[in-house]
Amino acid sequence: MAVKKNGRNARPEIPRKTVYRLSIYTRCLQRLLANGIHTVSSEALAGAAGVKSPQLRKDLAYFGQFGTRGLGYDVEQLIQMIADLLGTDHLQPVVLVGVGNLGTALLSYRGFEKEGFGVLAAFDVQHDRQRDKRVTQPIFPMEKLGHYVAENHVRMAILCVPPEEAQEVVNELVDAGVTGIMNFAPTVLQVPDEVTVNNVNMAIELENLSYFIQQ
Amino acid sequence: MAVKKNGRNARPEIPRKTVYRLSIYTRCLQRLLANGIHTVSSEALAGAAGVKSPQLRKDLAYFGQFGTRGLGYDVEQLIQMIADLLGTDHLQPVVLVGVGNLGTALLSYRGFEKEGFGVLAAFDVQHDRQRDKRVTQPIFPMEKLGHYVAENHVRMAILCVPPEEAQEVVNELVDAGVTGIMNFAPTVLQVPDEVTVNNVNMAIELENLSYFIQQ
Questions:
Q1: What one-character DSSP code corresponds to residue B188?
Q2: Which of A19, A94, A203 sits opposite B208 (nearest CB)?
Q3: Pick among A55, A181, A195, A212 to test the B interface (most B CBs inside 10 A)
Q4: B212 inside domain
Q5: What is the pLDDT of residues A85-132, one digit of tens each?
Q6: Which pLDDT belongs to residue B155?
Q7: DSSP string spanning B52-98?
């Protein structure tokens, strides 16, 4: 397989949209497996994922040729290959910065763990403020952020600070070794090329919908 | 102005990405206003929003010509025009369906209200289950969903149900008159052309980052 030819770290250059679709395929495959289905055609998997089957075949071609003509894909093998590629086959440590309303909500959300992301610790300027009892992670003062990230080899961070503080926190995270940031702060972050930022702005998503519902 | 020529409901056809950028511009403009700045050049606003200034000028051209050469844009006027276009100049009623971990977290999140979206009520199959005390909205059984949406002229919904239930709930929402859905369920929804779905999948965003941090 193309992906393994040069060892684990020589990953193929896959566009971001393809990586998103691989996540969707995985969820469809897991549902198939839960229903006792062990092989799937590209047409059936494409249908379940809401894409056209040439798109699916193109996306899976990054793994090299492994589907059997007339038989389709091995469900378990494909799940494993995608997990290996995405790096979700092992627990990924994450820190969360900014424990306000949204940060608190995300800390008490159990969905991340289920997907293999462990939010180890959170950081806030008011680290000792009284919070929701369902938050079980330790909350540290901001001064400990850089050291903690470096010490624990954390590469991913969830950012929920106010927009005016976001860039400063990002600089600190990047200096400490973080290369992936899920940004909930409604602002544009400047990062070096090797750092990836995924922006999730729920208010902006709602505003966007608000425009389209008035058409 | 092009936008008002045909009355409020004859909105120009604006691409989704442009609508997203308008939301970003609004936030930058609000920060300028808070700092006592009342006019801004396209270069300065573009810089604050992290876009190139030809892009900004193209985006704002949907409003017709209103910047004054050499003086720039009137900050307050531009905020008002964008709010009018996005429909955020009045409170937008929203329902939330599926009050599990994530739904509960979103109900207790105060950020939506601040942006002009009022989550009026929530719906769940287990509507009378004990929940977080910070949730102040009423939680109704699923049977009341369609009637409530129609009765209260709700056009927007936040969907946090399990993926296997999502399509059925969406059909009901659409039948009752919802035309904008913010979907947190990790699945692909089928909707008529006039309905807009914005997918927000936090686990998928994390998985996506997980791939890129390993490059």
A1: P
A2: A19
A3: A212
A4: no
A5: 888 888 889 999 999 878 887 887 777 777 788 899 999 999 888 777
A6: 94
A7: -HHHHHHHHGGG-S-PBTTTBEEHHHHHHHHHHHHT-SSPEEEEEE-
Which DSSP symbol is given to A138? -
Q: Which residues contact A193 (CB under 8 A, 6 or more apart)?
A: none
Please tell me whether residues B112 and B202 are part of one structural domain: yes
- B181 shares its domain with B124: yes
Residue in A with minimal Cα distance to B86: A211
> Using the 8-state DSSP alphabet, how is residue A41 labeled?
-
Taking alpha carbons only, the member of B80, B75, B76, B82 closest to residue B21 is B82
State the Cα–Cα distance between residues B55 and A36, nearest whole angstrom: 51
The model's pLDDT over A42-93, given as tens digits with 9 standing for 90+, comes to 999 998 888 899 999 999 988 876 666 677 899 999 999 998 888 888 888 9
Low-confidence ranges of chain B (pLDDT < 50): 1-9
Q: Domain residues for A144?
A: 92-206
* Helices B53-60/B42-49 angle, 10° precision: 110
Q: Which of A16, A96, A27, A213 is nearest to B85 (CA)?
A: A213
Closest residue, chain A, to B158 (C-alpha): A206
Q: How far apart are CA B194 and CA B180, in angstroms?
A: 9
Tell if the CB–CB gap between B209 and A180 is shorter than 8 Å: yes
- In angstroms, rounded to a whole number, what is the distance separating the alpha carbons of residues B67 and B43? 12
pTM attached to this predicted model:
0.71
Classify A208 as helix, strand or coil.
helix
Query: Count of domains in chain A?
Result: 2
Residues 6+ apart with CB under 8 A from B168: none
Residue A214 counted as domain residue: no
Distance from CA of A134 to the nearest CA of B (A): 9
Residues in A closer than 8 angstroms to B132, CB to CB, are 132, 134
- For chains A and B, CB pairs below 8 A equal 187
A59, part of any domain: yes
Say what the pLDDT of residue B152 is: 95
Which residues, including other chains, have CB under 8 Å from residue A170's CB and lie 6 or more apart? A159, A181, A183, A189, A190, A191
Give yes or no: residues A60 and A121 share one domain. no
